[in-house]
Each structure stands twice: as C-alpha cells, then as structure tokens.
TrEMBL record:
Residues 5-101 form the Terpene synthase N-terminal domain. Keywords: Lyase, Magnesium, Metal-binding. It comes from the Eukaryota. This is Terpene synthase. GO terms for molecular function: magnesium ion binding; terpene synthase activity. It comes from Thalictrum thalictroides (Rue-anemone).
Length: 456
C-alpha cells in the first residue's frame, strides 16, 4: 500500500471487478479480498474511512456462495461501517449508501436501477456529459419500445374480455407487464415480453379462480380438465372457468405453433406440463384452505415454489426468447431446473413477505410466515426475520447455480431477473393486488415519463 489514495482505489476497483465478473457468472476466487486483512484476519482499520470502497465491497459481498467466509465477513463489516457513517458525508453519496443498505444492487431490478443511477449521476459534479447524454437517449429509446409493447397488449387484453367475464379477477395489465419487462427488458425481446405478459395475465386470472372464487368441487373439475388438456374438457365447467380455460389453451397453441413453424420442433408438451403442475399446486393449496390445514414451512415451500408461477414463467420465457430451439436445447432446459428452483423459492418468499396479509384477507391459504409461526410458536416478527434469513441464504444457492448452469447466459439472467422483479414489486407490500402507490410511481417512471434531456 503506497498511500491511502492508492489503497482506496484498490479496494474500490478490486470489489467492482469481482462483482462484475460474478454478475456475468464467472467463478472468481474471493481470496482476492484477503489482502485487505491484517495479520489477525480482520479487515484493516483504514478501510472504514473509504466510503466508496466500502460500498463497492458491500455490493460485491452479495454475490457470495455458501462457504465463502471472507465475503460473509465483508458483508458484516461493511454493513456495520456504512450504517455508522451514512450521515457523515455528502448528500449524493449518503443516498447511495441508504439505497444499498435497503436492498443491494444485485437484488434490484436492472431497468429501475438504470433510471435511478442516471438521476444520481446527473447530480455528480464530475459526470461525463456525453456518456450521460447517451445513457438518457438509450433509456428513452428503450422506453418507447416498451410503450409500443403495452399499446399492443392493451388491444389484446380488451379483446380477451376478462374484465367483463371475470369481474372477480384482478385487472392488472400494466403491473403484469412490469413483471415481464423486469424479466426481459432488452429491446430485442419484444416478443418475449408480450408473450410473458399474456401468460401472467391468464395465470393471474386462474390464480384468482383458485384463491377467491371457485368452490372446491369446481376447482377439482377445472384441474381435471387441465390435466386432460382438450377443448372437450370444458363440458361441465362453469362459464367463468370455460373463459379462462380456453384462453390458456389458445395461448399455448399460439406459442407452440409459432415455434414449430420457425424451428420445426414441437414444444407443446413442455409448456402444457408446466400448466398442469401449476394448476395442481393451486389445487393443493385450495384443499389446505378448505380443510383449514396449515402445512409446515417445508411442506408449504415444497408446493409454493411451483404455485408462485416461477417454473412455468421461465419455461415460457425460454421458448419465447430463444433464437435457436432444438432437441439439444430442450436437454439444456431440463438441466437448468436447479437454477429455476432456487429462483422460484426466493420469489415465493419475497412474495409472502410483501403481501401475505393481503392474500389471507382475500381468502388465500396461510403463507410461509404463518406456517412458520404455527410450526414453531414464534411471533410474527420472529417468523418474518426467519424468512428474510432464508432469502439471504437462498440467494447464495442461486449465485452458485448461476455459475454452474449450462443454460444460455441470456436465460440465466432472465431467471435471476424474475427474483429481482419480485423484490421490486413486493418491496412495499402487494404490488400486484393494488394499482396505486409505489407500483403506480414505478409504472409512470418506466413507461410514461421519459428522462429530460437538455440541449447543448
């Protein structure tokens, strides 16, 4: 360490390089941070004065996997240091620290963070004006593509007629598009975004059928019809169930036919299997509810990772975005199941942390927090802290699987983005069941208001 400036730059740059490589799924060794420890194995005292370096190390530590003690120590150390000094430096850096301590960058939705960082960087006296201008132009251009996606989807949603035929169901087209856009925001994935939004809209309606409207006998009939997967299975279903059933069949047929036309391969059985699994998981939760049964946390999560819709969403995303689909790529998809599992588990837990009370009021089964309370006898706050601990632990598994996975990197990123989007949507409560507050502000900033660009 030649001097303090070099030392600080080294901490910042080492942490930044480590984070970027890990984000792109390279297995970088965390031992690079041992050089910042003293002879006693503790982080050096001088580090607590380097706010940018601490912040960079804090962000890097969230890309750890199980067994990486140096990153666990780094997280504890940086969190303590940043909390103790967050009010002692300039307002821009203070906001960045508060933002990071609330939710780390690795857990945040990329599109929202792009806008946030542009706003922060715009107030930086040392900003690169041309680079900032390009970032604003890029954001606005991509936003215009998202606006066209939403416009096309609005026509589809209106023609579908769910608002008139399924009046009990949530009318949340824009919120569902936030989900799809969060998973695949890049401009080249318009087809994927629109297809995913349609999937989520139909899933939401069917979820409401199971949660708040259908009787148990009707739900048994509907699940049986899904397992048969035939238009003749609609006989005997109530009219409202026929509407959602036919919409589901039509969506799968359109996606499968398009893929067969473009790639010469029939993927329908893979998509249909996910819908069957999804509806069977919904039925299991409905049986729990009608029987007044509260499962253990393990039993709940064993079903909940499917009922959250993660596996079905990711299979749809895979086929909607892939440029080349072959028998080999289907084999690749099967081997991505571990990554999808951990992503879906975290999505389930984050969902529960945000909206468990709202869903129970609407008539849903007890969620992970209530299951753990019943199982162990702890308070609600203790249960919430336990679930938050599981989220932190499972992120390590997700990080590990993202490095090991043989899926295309674009697909790995979409799977991780699903978790990030869930974190965004449920950070301040139920971001889907309601269409106001933070979710409305998010939609306006992402789809309505472009970033102002000053002419030079």
């Amino acid at each position: 360490m030649e001097n303090d400036n070099n030392y600080c730059a080294d901490l910042y740059n080492t942490s930044l390089r480590f984070r970027l490589l890990r984000q792109h799924h390279y297995p970088v060794d965390p031992d690079v941070f041992n050089k910042f420890k003293d002879r006693n194995g503790r982080f050096m005292e001088g580090m607590n004065k380097d706010v940018k370096g601490l912040l960079s190390l804090y962000e890097a530590s969230h890309l750890s996997v199980n067994g990486e003690d140096v990153l666990e120590e780094a997280l504890k150390y940086t969190t303590t240091c940043l909390k103790s000094i967050e009010s002692h430096f300039d307002i821009i850096l203070a906001k960045q620290v508060q933002h990071a301590l609330a939710i780390p960058l690795h857990w945040r939705m990329p599109r929202i963070e792009a806008r946030n960082f542009i706003d922060v960087y715009d107030r930086d006296d040392k900003k690169h004006a041309v680079l900032l201008q390009l970032a604003k132009l890029d954001f606005n251009l991509v936003q215009s593509i998202h606006q066209r996606n939403l416009s096309d989807l609005s026509w589809w949603w209106s023609d579908l007629g769910f608002k008139e035929k399924l009046t009990f169901s949530r009318d949340r087209l824009v919120e569902n598009f936030i989900w799809a856009m969060g998973i695949a925001h890049e401009p080249q994935y318009s087809k994927c975004r629109e297809g995913l939004t349609k999937f989520i809209c139909i899933l939401t309606a069917i979820d409401d059928v199971y949660d708040i409207y259908g009787s148990l006998d009707e739900l048994e009939l509907f699940t049986e019809a899904v397992c048969r997967w035939d238009i003749s299975a609609t006989e005997g279903l109530p009219p409202y169930m026929k509407t959602s059933y036919l919409a589901m069949l039509n969506l799968v047929n359109i996606i499968s036919n398009n893929i067969k036309r473009d790639h010469g391969i029939d993927v329908s059985r893979h998509i249909v299997e996910e819908w069957k699994n999804l509806c069977k998981s919904y039925l299991k939760e409905a049986r729990w509810f009608y029987n007044g049964y509260t499962p253990t946390l393990e039993e709940y999560l064993g079903n909940g990772w499917t009922s959250v819709g993660g596996p079905a969403a990711m299979v749809h995303a895979y086929f909607l975005h892939a440029e080349n689909i072959s028998v080999e790529s289907l084999h690749c998809l099967k081997h991505g199941s571990e990554l999808m599992y951990w992503a879906s588990i975290i999505t389930r837990l984050v969902d529960d942390l945000g909206n468990a009370k709202d869903e129970i009021i609407r008539g849903d089964v007890p969620k992970s927090i209530q299951c753990y309370m019943k199982q162990t006898g702890v308070s609600e706050e203790q249960a919430r802290q336990h679930v938050k601990g599981l989220v932190r632990s499972y992120w390590k598994k997700l990080n590990e699987e993202s490095v090991k996975s043989i899926l295309p990197k674009s697909m790995i990123e979409m799977i991780i983005n699903m978790v990030r989007t869930a974190q965004c949507i449920f950070e301040h409560g139920d971001g889907i069941g309601t269409s106001h507050g933070t979710t409305k502000d998010t939609a306006i900033s992402l789809f309505v208001e472009p970033i102002s660009i000053k002419r030079t």
